[in-house]
Write a structure and sequence with these properties.
Elements (H helix, E strand, L loop, with lengths): L3 E6 L8 H10 L8 E10 L2 E10 L7 H5 L5 E3 L5 E3 L9 H5 L6 E2 L22 H8 L23 E2 L5 H4 L6 H5 L5 E5 L6 H8 L2 E2 L11 E4 L6
Parallel strand pairs: 1-10
Antiparallel strand pairs: 1-8, 2-3, 4-5, 6-7, 9-10
């Protein structure tokens, strides 16, 4: 079996946020939720100032604390190493969110994408309401991606959690996660860590790699190489 991993080359990253947007559109992620996100920090004193930008997502750990904590096994690690979630088993207890040190699991307190159920037009008699626009698109909302529903709920229910799945619905068909494909700088590299000839394995041999919170022993499968390009 493959063991999937992702490398983020911080020297190539331009901080555009294209990965964040690609993830939202591909996975029907609700407003305010961030399966793919980033942290930014400015340190130092002028003129010696350093800007740090680090893209973040679920780390698909080798030892995932969210899986260990889940009482119903709704959160689980698949044979390919991807940490996945089964909403049919999820009871919304949020134990996984408490156990998750990376804070990348989100809880649906409200019904997602409720803004598209608004039946009031922006301009009375001139524009359709959000609800009418969604109905005309033949989808829950106009930019809904039906392919997401092939392996996971297309839109997760109220009362359950959700998170990044490495776009398993794409990976199953030999495609890259959408954040990888959408990156204009090719800063994200995805592949099989068990394959010594994969680009992931080659880069991990070539460059020293860092992971988030290494002292916890979770063994993340998202690696960072080099430094953010500030020039």
């Amino acid at each position: 079996m493959p063991k999937y991993a992702m490398i983020i080359d911080l020297q190539k990253c331009v901080g555009c946020g294209g990965c964040d947007l690609a993830c939202k559109s591909e996975n029907n992620v609700p407003d305010g939720f961030f399966w793919a996100h980033h942290t930014v920090k400015t340190v130092g004193k002028f003129p010696d100032v350093k800007y740090i930008h680090v893209p973040t997502l679920c780390n698909h750990c080798e030892n995932p604390p969210c899986v260990t904590a889940c009482p119903t096994r709704a959160m689980y690690k698949d044979k390919d190493g991807i940490v996945k979630h089964n909403p049919r088993k999820c009871i919304g207890c949020k134990t996984c969110t408490l156990a998750d040190p990376y804070k990348v699991i989100f809880y649906n307190k409200e019904r997602p994408h409720s803004e598209w159920r608004n039946n009031k037009p922006l301009i009375q008699g001139m524009t359709p309401s959000a609800e009418e626009t969604a109905q005309q698109s033949g989808a829950p909302y106009p930019y809904y991606n039906p392919e997401r529903a092939s392996t996971y709920q297309g839109i997760r229910d109220r009362g359950v959690v959700e998170k990044c799945s490495f776009c398993d619905h794409r990976v199953n068909h030999g495609l890259l996660p959408h954040c990888v494909e959408a990156c204009p700088a090719d800063a994200r590299i995805f592949g099989d860590q068990n394959d010594p000839n994969s680009q992931v394995s080659i880069l991990l041999r070539k460059y020293p790699a860092k992971v988030m919170l290494p002292g916890l022993g979770t063994k993340p499968k998202v690696y960072y190489i080099r430094e953010y390009n500030r020039v």
